[in-house]
Amino acid sequence: MNSSEIIAFEKCLPEKIVSNDDLSEFLETSDEWISSRTGIRQRHVSTGESTSDICANVARGLLEKAGMSPEEVDIIIVATISPDYFTPSTACIVQEKIGACNSFAFDINAACSGFIYALSIGDKMIKSGIYNNALIIGGEIMSKIMNWEDRSTCVLFGDGAGGALLKRSEEKQAVICEDLHTDASKYSAILGHKVPVKSKFAESDYDGSEDYFTMDGRAVFNFAIKRVPEGINKIIEKAGISFDDVKYIVPHQANLRIVEAVAKKLKLPMDKFFINIDKTGNTSAASVPVALAQMTEEGLIEKGDKVIITGFGAGLTWGTILLEI
Ligand code: UT7
Q1: How far, in Å, from the CA of 152 to the mean position of ligand 1?
Q2: What is the percentage of the chain residues whose pLDDT exceeds 90?
Q3: What is the pTM of this model?
């Protein structure tokens, strides 16, 4: 049987840290408002690093941990909503930066569910038997798509990248089961940078009001606390396991209050959930792989452990995977 195994996790967070107090120097906000509403106390922010820079650092770290050369890489998938360019994909630029000249590379856009979707895609490509390995990376420079005058969104996000190296395996199975969804009827709840049709032939009256990221926070909150527990319950049922078999649930780090509401619905203690949002803010597609890399570094998870990873965000998309480390 062809299956895929996780060989390593890696993360890269820009060095610059911006605290809630730093934000209150130029925004009408406070540490009290941000931390009590979201659990966020600080975030890492780029001082010039691009999305491909931090994703390439993740790719290099993964290859080093695996003892692999860049020439051996088959597939590079980057999940991002803050690419360097519309085209080429950020994954192509990562290929060039690390010298993975025998790979093919592409991006996917599934917002904060991006890493979950990308892991599913990479897993299936390896299961096809055609490819041996894949670098699956979620990376964002969210700071460049924020409206820094909109306190309701810019305080929530941070920059970073994280990833996993998947390799073909005869014995192990990384993705045990999954549950992926999109409900585009609510797509306007999160919009990131409109691209209006402006050409010699177009009549455009676009006023620039959607040049930046906008979000209906309440709508997303309500969507998340319904769909995330639903997805987790489905995975437990599909896999025929109990929560005792799962070492951790690693949720997309969007808001501590969302995780608390999910824990309550599932009747699980908060220590079943990994949380690092206080240090990172919401890094969109990077949040789950950054968390997994941190958990590995801290010895919280090791080979053979089962974890549930879950993401939700613009689209609206959501997805849940039962993963064996
Ligand atoms: O990856 C998915 C990403 N999306 C999410 O995770 C979003 C989920 N939603 C949320 O996390 C919450 O809805 C927010 C944290 C975004 C907002 O919390 P809320 O309790 O829903 O607040 P609100 O938007 O209803 O705003 C309450 C008040 C408003 O003032 P008034 O109208 O009551 O006077 C806002 O203007 O808080 C004000 N406000 C702020 N005040 C200080 C909004 N942002 C800020 C701020 N600092 N940064």
Answers
A1: 5
A2: 93
A3: 0.96
